[in-house]
Amino acid sequence: MTNRITITTALVDDLRRRLAESPGSVVEVPAGLRKDTQGLEFLAPLGARRPGGRRGPPAVLRFALLPHALEGISHHWWEGFPNPLGARPRADLALYEERGCSGAVLVDGEVRPIDEVVLAGPRMERWRPGTTPADLVGTVPEDGPFSRYIGALGGCGAHERLRALSAAGIGMARLNSLQAVALVRAGVRRLALIDPDVLESHSLDAVEALAAGSVGRPKVGAVADMLRRVAPDVALEELAVPADHILAAAACARADLVFSAPDQNQARLLAALVARAHHRVHLDVGTGVFGAGDEFVAGADIRLIVPGDGCLLCVGGLDLRRPRERDWRRQRAGSLRSLNGVATSLAMFLLERFLIGDLQHSVWMQVTLDRRGELASRRMPRQPDPDCVVCAHAGAGDAVLTSGVATDRSASRSFS
Ligand SMILES: [Zn+2]
Questions:
Q1: Å from CA of 312 to ligand 1 middle
Q2: pLDDT per residue as tens digits for the range 210-224
């Protein structure tokens, strides 16, 4: 059983500031929980719709600053203190002066080690409690796999963080199969592929699948075969189920990165909700081609949602109640692999800048190309909405899967 803590970078920055203001203090934060056969994950902070209601939050996290001399202490240190009895799990994190922490999970009087602390946010740092994080940034291997890529990323650090990501893809058609190939080429090695459809002959020109024998197979299986050719050591989960299936939601809940490019905005909304409830990075891409002649325009929306900074609904403008807002995904007449390549490559570029730490906030980028290839790009100005219905479930963890929100179609009627 593993114990994992996922907290947003913004929360850690805020706690560090508050703890520094009153030396020796302890700050307690309510937390959500995600449980599966692998173990237990604490999630913080929580949004407005706190799971547990009057019964109190599913879990608590306690933070303190650790004196420099004590850095490196293990979870056994917590055995010297009285530990709470009761059903509500608690995790204590003692933050080091610069980076890293020590800590323990306390469940019903028992002290357990913490396997990993994920700082969901710019850079996607991962700490192993009790050890000082190796600062790998700056080293570039002279040769060998990924050496050119690592050089362009500015050192091993960002690439290590990228390789550590697990990803779940909602929709595995023309656009997202390209995204999956891009992620695997970059070094991501754990992916869940989610799509209920089978591959038809009209898709063979653009879905990233091997042509021979693929027609009539589930898309996830055909794309998985292609990814295994690209990287034989990749670990793939093939889920030929719709996005609102419990297995699909659980796969997204487990992953560090949710990447979505589904046909339906209902699936997009689900991806947004599960990502927000578990502080996961959300990368969404949509493309479309409109008109002919002088009226021709090709466009793409690329959205990277940073954990703790809004969601696809409030920052990414998924709200489709505005009929005049052009939505590239509504056009189904045709599809350009060239345009999909532009969109997924830009999405990958944004993900890289996020892992390096240059991209600190959620971004919605809209790109258009006219018939002569003139390219225009703009950042869509959106702010996180304090009353956002999706953000209200931030950090809720398992509670969002059992609340019915994730599968309640009426909840999103106004968005489609
Ligand atoms: Zn939101």
A1: 6
A2: 888 889 999 999 999
Distance 329 CA to ligand 1 centre (A): 20
Q: How far is the CA of 414 from the centre of ligand 1 (A)?
A: 15
What are the strands of the beta sheet with 39-44, ordered from one edge? 110-112, 101-107, 90-95, 59-65, 27-36, 39-44, 2-8, 116-120, 125-127
Residue 271 tokens read as 């991806």
Q: Which domains does the chain have, with CATH numbers?
A: 2-127 (3.40.140), 165-415 (3.40.50.720)
Between CA 203 and CA 332 the distance in angstroms is 13
Tell me how far the alpha carbon of residue 192 lies from the centroid of ligand 1, in angstroms: 24
- Rounded to the nearest whole angstrom, what is the distance from the C-alpha of residue 209 to the centroid of ligand 1? 34
Task: Render pLDDT for 182-211 as a digit per residue (tens, 0 to 9).
Answer: 999 999 999 999 999 999 988 888 899 888
Those residues whose beta carbon sits under 5 angstroms from the ion ligand 1 are: 310-311, 313-314, 388, 390-391
Whether 338 has a pLDDT exceeding 50, the answer reads yes
Confidence of residue 410 (pLDDT cuts 50, 70, 90): very low
CB 60 within 8 A of CB 395: no
Question: What whole-number distance in Å separates Cα of residue 117 and Cα of residue 2?
Answer: 11
Q: How far is the CA of 305 from the centre of ligand 1 (A)?
A: 10
Q: From the CA of 231, how far away is ligand 1's center (Å)? A: 35
| Dist. CA 156 → ligand 1 center (Å) | 33
Instruction: Burial-class residue 330 by CB neighbours within 10 Å (0-12, 13-18, 19+).
Output: exposed
- Of residues 145 and 331, more confidently modeled: 145
